[in-house]
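Long-time lurker, finally posting.

We've been working with Voltage-gated potassium channel (Arcanobacterium phocae) and I want a structural starting point before designing mutants. I don't trust myself to interpret raw outputs, so I'm hoping someone here can both generate the structure tokens and explain anything notable. Sequence follows.
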Amino acid sequence: MSRVEKWEQRTELPMVILAVVFLVIYGWEVIGDLQGLSRLRMELAMNVIWGVFIVDYCVRLIIADNRRSWFLRNLFDLAIVLLPLLRPLRMLRLLAFVKILGRRVTLGFRGKIIVYAASAVVMLVLISAIAVLDVERRAPGTMLDNFGDSLWWAFVTITTVGYGDLFPVTTTGRIIALFLMIGGIALTGIVTATLASWIVETVSEESEVHQTATKKEIADLRAEISELKELLAQQTL
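Top reply, 14 upvotes:
Generated this for you. Predicted structure of Voltage-gated potassium channel:
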């Protein structure tokens, strides 16, 4: 196990807890539409957590065996840490919770895939609804000025239905929508592939059972034919 893997193993749960705290604070600020001193306190708390995320990224980069390779493989983490435009995407660290949940679930491979997919859908919808409300609420011509509409929009978008009754009007809102659509397509593919694999395996198992039964019946028929031949031979003699 590499030093980065050991570090991630030790810090995984604390970082997920921080991400959950970040989500609660961010959601409280956005949904409650906090202003003044209350908003400043929330922003301070989120900035402290963001600072921890930056430290975590820097530590992983420093202790990586091949820093250049690690850097290139984790450009998305770098973007989340550095780009103010992607601030809401810092909550995507919550998806690490899915990995931890998978370790605790005593199911087969397909069961874990379903758990991963369901957890990811819930988190992506919630995160996207809060994030798009944050950037759209006061935009001119906005259609997403309350959490209920934002949540409905997130559900419609991740399922790629796209009714068109609600949509973001800001650039940041459209970027969030883009990530949500890509996530929805990927998760749909995972669930579809898992379901198809289960159906194929079930049909294959049933076919094997039928083939085994057929082979036994054929063997029994051959045995009966052999017995009949012996009886006929004895009668002929």
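Before you design anything, note these points.
Residues 1-104 form one domain.
The chain is about 80% helix and 0% strand.
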